Amino acid sequence: MDVGTDLGPRGTLRRVVDHAAELTGAASAALVTADPGQGDLAGIRTAARDGVAESAGTAPRLEVPIHVGEERFGELRLTGRPGSGPFTAEDEQLVRVLATHAGIVIGTARLHRTARQRERWIEGAAAVTTALLTEESADDALTTVAERARLLADASAGVILQPTAEGGMEIVTASTPEDPDGIVGAAIAPGSPVLEQLLGGEPVFVTDSATDPRMTTHVRHRFGPSMMLPLRANGRLIGTLALPRRRGDRPYTDVERLLATQFASQAALALVLADARRGRERLAVYEDRDRIARDLHDLVVQRLFATGMMLESTRRRSGAEDVRDILGRALDELRSTVQEVRTAIFALQQSPAGPPTGLRGRVLRETAAAAALLGFPPSTHFTGAVDTRVPDRVADRLLTALRHALTDAGGRPGVSRVEVTVDATTTLPDGRDGVRLTVFDDGVTGPGDGVTGPGDGEGTTVTWRSAL
Q1: Is 81 exposed, middle or buried (0-12, 13-18, 19+ CB in 10 A)?
Q2: 229 DSSP 8-state letter
Q3: Residues 6+ apart with CB under 8 A from 433
């Protein structure tokens, strides 16, 4: 009845050991298991009673096995019986009763620990799924999986490996509270036995990473027990989740291996879903940009063009001399507006995530970046097939000149308008085909600025030319 008092697993087992010594008159008693993975349920012992120390070679000994179900967990060991002779059959029967109770306590503790582990891993998998479906980047998603798995497994590190173009696997993400130096970038060479298992979708369990011949990375000496779990969903191998512990740490139990494998499967599915969600969002953005570009082209440009035709017709009528100049300026403004709208259409057709393509896209990227310095977007115009006529070597120099001109414009006072023009149809003074960059700003200039323009105080025009 006394050992049945609820003290928790370790407290109850200590009472079992103490009562075994008390009831049999043993000098000392201990609960011993050969399994180092039992943690705080192993190595419970009582001090020598009555200050008597017995020699292990001559003192009476009594060993009674402890079974948990069909498994032999360990044994109760009693040593020494000062002044009472050897242990009796009645002593053995008493200790067997206590050993049976110890087995029940250990079995219950195991069930509770397993249930708690399952609960933690399930909660962790749910948290990872929620996090992945709200993350913005793939790198953040992989880091989330590695960090959560490391905490759940009580591992020294959580790392994600992904296949390389050469047929190996490389660590792309590492989560560790210790020094992560050298972990990211470590690779498993093609042809490694462990790699063949992982690429085949099989988990790999390692007792000691430092000495296992299958482990070939240069950081293996840092770790001991390890699990390497494929991240596989819908027949697609995303990568591998590795959870190494420190050297000398306890090995993973069968329950931990099962729960971690299930977690990896759930995480892989969540990664696929998260990637699909980001793909849908990108597609929605592209569709919106295409729709806006079509609307600009089909509605705005055509209406502006029709308005320009009406103004042009009006200017040609007899008796329109008094408004001819006004109509001419209006037509110029309309042409400029049409060109800017077409430039905007081209920008919308560029991928927002990727680098700009062609000279046109690169110029637009530079002018968009300059808007932060200027406080407004520059007006950009293109003449001719700038993407096909201007070679890359010339385009690079043009962009350098454009960058300098925009920086200078941003440093002048009173700038409220900047116009950038790239003309790929120009002819150089020596008759060769060329490209011309013109950057105008209406900022205040002073004498001796060293720039070309209509005159001091009337803005600044920078011109750059090159042969094609």
Answers
A1: buried
A2: E
A3: 389, 426, 427, 467, 468
In contact, 177 and 141? CB cutoff 8 Å: no
DSSP letters, 393-420, are HHHHHHHHHHHHHHHHHHHSTT---EEE
Residue 333 tokens read as: 């403004």
Phi, psi of 267, deg, nearest 5: -65, -40
Neighbours of 388 (CB within 10 A): 10
- Of 264, 259, 226, 260, residue with least CA distance to 245: 226
Model pLDDT for residues 337-366, shown as the tens digit of each residue: 666 666 666 666 555 555 556 888 889 888
Structure tokens at 141: 């998603």
63 and 87 Cβ atoms separated by less than 8 Å? no
pLDDT value for 282: 65
How do beta strands 236-246 and 223-233 pair?
antiparallel
Q: What is the DSSP letter of 433?
A: B
Please report the sign of the dihedral spanned by the C-alpha atoms of residue 250, residue 255, residue 256, residue 257. positive
Task: Judge whether 122 and 213 are in contact, CB under 8 Å.
Answer: no
d(CA 359, CA 380): 13
- Please, what is the Cα angle at 129 between 126 and 130, to 5 degrees? 85
pLDDT digits (tens, 9 = 90+) for 379-436: 888 888 888 889 888 998 999 899 889 888 888 888 888 999 999 999 998 989 999 9
